[in-house]
């Protein structure tokens, strides 16, 4: 086994000006007793001294959230394999039944795991929770809610990419699940998350990229793509462009990007994690950006990761079919979406199935309690493994 180092002195010694706890390629560190793979964020901050007490609360909350989401990952990953791969002849109703079953199962597991949490989270914009409790605008609070509760705001999806999850799997028979299924929670100081206008429609246009200046979500995606390539001095093929594969909303800029020669990656679902990882250069040497349109809660979680880590650039605006009309829409940057001190923001993602872009991030395997996760906060973005606990079988 690789040698494991001690946790950051930030927590152990209570120093006021910590060195930042970041890993380098090929190294493994211990973080709260869990292994960490190479961090993908680029440079530590020069001017930022986190508050020691806030960081202690942040770490404790991250641990509780990680433990809860790990249970979700194990339950869903194993249940997907027991369900088997959906028939090619399955009707839309059959697929929807599987989708709703898994979505509600994930939500139920998460709610049970949070009953014993020390810290309360008021989920102000939450996709999966809505499926369980009904009502698009409902607000849910999980965790300890007593008189002395240390409350924070959050966004959650207990099962991101439910339609991919509904595909199922039969790993022992060589039928793997579809990649990209995850669960996530992003949290910050109470009241930190902006509630996106409910009358703005279902879809939001997003731009997530390295922070090179001169980018604007309302511009034609090809202009922003050219800007990143020029600013970074790279070849088109060294830029990965991720977009949801939605012919009615993305066909034109996908065609233009492909003609340019970038590494175009249309996704069936789930561009949230790709946006979260768009701040710096990946382990494969490529930069990454996300363009296109999608849902709202996922954008808030990606914005939280960027606001905490100080890496990357992100904007969202109301999606309209006519791009010229977007110039009249309000634009929200990642710090507009999450207004809080960086040392109060945390994002935890568990990988229920393999990540499509990062081979080291594996999904749940039947018979194993190992869960791969990604944590983003003021120290950067890091990948960890933890042992999950199955409940609600």
From TrEMBL:
Which catalytic reaction applies to this protein?
A: beta-D-fructose 1,6-bisphosphate + H2O = beta-D-fructose 6-phosphate + phosphate
Q: In the Enzyme Commission scheme, what number(s) does this protein have?
A: 3.1.3.11
What Gene3D superfamilies is this protein classified in? Answer: 3.40.190.90
Answer yes or no on keyword Hydrolase: yes
The organism's superkingdom is given as Bacteria
Q: Which GO terms describe its biological process?
A: fructose 1,6-bisphosphate metabolic process; gluconeogenesis; glycerol metabolic process
- Locate the coiled-coil region(s) and give their ranges: none
GO terms for molecular function, please?
Answer: fructose 1,6-bisphosphate 1-phosphatase activity; metal ion binding
* UniProt entry keywords in alphabetical sequence: Carbohydrate metabolism, Hydrolase, Manganese, Metal-binding
The yes or no answer to whether the keyword Repeat is present is no
The UniProt entry, under InterPro entries, shows: FBPase_class-2/SBPase
What sort of enzyme, by top EC class, is this? hydrolase
A single GO cellular-component term from the record reads: cytosol
Q: Pfam families from the xrefs?
A: FBPase_glpX
Q: Supply the SUPFAM superfamilies for this chain.
A: Carbohydrate phosphatase
Indicate the family of this protein.
Belongs to the FBPase class 2 family.
User: Could you tell me what this protein is called?
Assistant: fructose-bisphosphatase
What is the scientific name of the source organism? Candidatus Dojkabacteria bacterium
Higher taxonomy:
Bacteria, Candidatus Dojkabacteria
């Amino acid at each position: 086994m690789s040698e494991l180092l001690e946790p950051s002195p930030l927590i152990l010694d209570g120093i006021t000006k910590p060195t930042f706890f970041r890993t380098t390629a090929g190294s493994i560190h211990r973080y709260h007793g869990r292994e960490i793979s190479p961090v993908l964020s680029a440079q530590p901050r020069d001017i930022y001294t986190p508050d020691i007490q806030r960081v202690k609360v942040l770490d404790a909350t991250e641990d509780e959230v990680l433990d809860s989401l790990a249970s979700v990952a194990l339950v869903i990953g194993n249940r997907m394999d027991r369900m088997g791969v959906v028939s090619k002849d399955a009707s839309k109703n059959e697929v929807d039944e599987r989708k709703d079953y898994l979505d509600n199962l994930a939500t139920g597991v998460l709610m049970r795991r949070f009953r014993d949490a020390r810290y309360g989270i008021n989920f102000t914009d939450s996709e999966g929770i809505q499926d369980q409790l009904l009502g698009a605008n409902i607000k849910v609070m999980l965790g300890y809610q007593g008189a002395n509760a240390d409350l924070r705001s959050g966004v959650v999806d207990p099962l991101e990419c439910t339609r991919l999850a509904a595909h199922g799997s039969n790993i022992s028979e060589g039928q793997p699940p579809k990649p990209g299924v995850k669960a996530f929670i992003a949290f910050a100081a109470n009241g930190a998350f902006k509630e996106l206008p409910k009358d703005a429609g279902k879809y939001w246009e997003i731009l997530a990229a390295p922070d090179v200046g001169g980018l604007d979500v309302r511009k034609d995606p090809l202009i922003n793509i050219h800007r990143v390539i020029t600013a970074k001095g790279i070849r088109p093929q060294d830029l990965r462009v991720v977009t949801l594969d939605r012919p009615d909303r993305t066909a034109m800029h996908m065609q233009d990007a492909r003609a340019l020669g970038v590494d175009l990656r249309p996704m069936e679902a789930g561009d949230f994690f790709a946006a979260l990882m768009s701040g710096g250069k990946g382990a494969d040497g490529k930069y990454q950006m996300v363009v296109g349109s999608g849902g709202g809660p996922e954008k808030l979680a990606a914005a939280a990761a960027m606001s905490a880590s100080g890496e990357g650039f992100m904007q969202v605006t109301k999606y309209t079919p006519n791009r010229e009309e977007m110039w009249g829409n309000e634009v929200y940057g990642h710090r507009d979406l999450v207004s809080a001190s960086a040392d109060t923001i945390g994002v935890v993602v568990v990988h229920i199935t393999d990540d499509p872009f990062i081979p080291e991030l594996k999904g749940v395997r039947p018979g194993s309690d190992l869960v791969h996760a990604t944590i983003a906060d003021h120290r950067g973005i890091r990948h960890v493994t933890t042992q999950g606990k199955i409940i609600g079988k």
